[in-house]
Amino acid sequence: MKLVANVKLLPTPEQYELLKQTIERANEACNFVSSLAWETKTFKQFSLHKLAYTAVRDQFGLSAQVAVRCIAKVSDAYKADTKVQRHFRKHAAQPYDDRIFRFLNDSAVSIWTVGGRIKVPCVTGDYQRELLKHRRGEVDLMLVRGEFYVACVCDIDDPDMIETTDVLGVDFGIVNIAVDSNGTSYSGEAVEAKRRIYANRRRNLQRKGTRAAKRKLRTLKGRQARYQKDINHQISKRLVADAKRSGSVIALEDLKGIRERVKANKSQRARLSNWSFHQLRQFVTYKARRAGIGVISVDPRNTSRTCPECGHCEKANRTERDTFRCRECGHTAPADANAARNIRAKAVVNRPNGNAKLGVAKVA
Ligand SMILES: [Zn+2]
To answer: In this structure, what are the phi and psi dihedrals at residue 226, rounded to the nearest 5 degrees?
Structure first.
C-alpha cells in the first residue's frame, strides 16, 4: 500500500529564499511549457521534451533534470484531457527525482535550487522514519502556509491480516460522529460545540461579504478543515485500535445512506454536511489495512429503524432523533448505538450463536 510522508524542511532564511525562487521559477517554466503544448497540441512527454527542453533551460536557468521534471509535470497534467489549457499556481508542488533530491540522513536533505544544491535540515518523527525506509521514486516539494515540505510516497508491504473472530459495527453521524456496536461513542459535545462556533463565524463572515471578511472566511475554512482532519485521525485511530484488541473486522455503512437517512431533520443535515464522513471512512480504511484488519461495507438501508433484539423493522421505531424505541418488543437504546449493532449484524454472515463467520463477506 502507498502512504505519503510529509517531511518538513527547516531552511535558513537564505535557503528559504532559494527554495521559494526555485518553486516559483519551476512553475513559470511549467506555464511556459503548458502554453507551448497547448498552442502546438503537443501533449506527449517525449514530443514535448523535443519541443521545449532547450528553451526551458535557456530561459529559466533550470538544471537539466528539473527541466525534465517540469516537462513531465505538464504532460501529466494533460493526461486526463486536453480540452483546457493547464495553468500552474505560483507555488504549485514541484516534483523532484533522485538526481536532484536525496535524504542525507534522518535530519537533512540535499536539494537542487536555482542557487545550486543546498543541504537543508528537516524534521522526521518515528512514524515517518519507519515509512521513509520504503520511499519510492519522486518527491514533491511543497510550500504550504509558508512552510516547505517534501511529500514522499512510500510503498509498504500490506501486513498479514490478523485473525478475527468478531465484527465491530460502526455508525456515523446520528448524534455522535461515530458510535461502535459496543456502545463506545466518539466525539460528541465538544466537537459539536466547536463545529457550531465555526458555522456561526462562517455565517457572520458570509453576511458581511467585504473583502477582508472573505479573506477571513478562507482562513477559517482552512482551520476548520484541519481541526476536522485531526479529529477524524483520532477517531479512526481509536476505532482501529479497538478492533485490533478485540480481534474484529470493522463494518462500516456505505456512505450513500448517510444523507437520506436523516432527511427529516434540518439541524441534523447541517451537522452532516459540516463533517467529512468520507474522509473519516478513508482514514478508518487505510489505518485498518495497515493494522491487518479487514473493513466490510454494508448496505445502510434500515439500520436506523430495525430492532436488533427482535428484528422488527418499522419507521415508527425511530420517531425521535436520538432514541430508538421498538414498537414490537419495547427495546430502547440510543439511536446511534442501535444502528451500529445493526451494521454489525449485517456484516456477520453466519451467526447461529452470535459468532461472526466472515468467510463470505466482502472485505474492502
Ligand atoms: Zn424489538
So the answer is: -70, -40
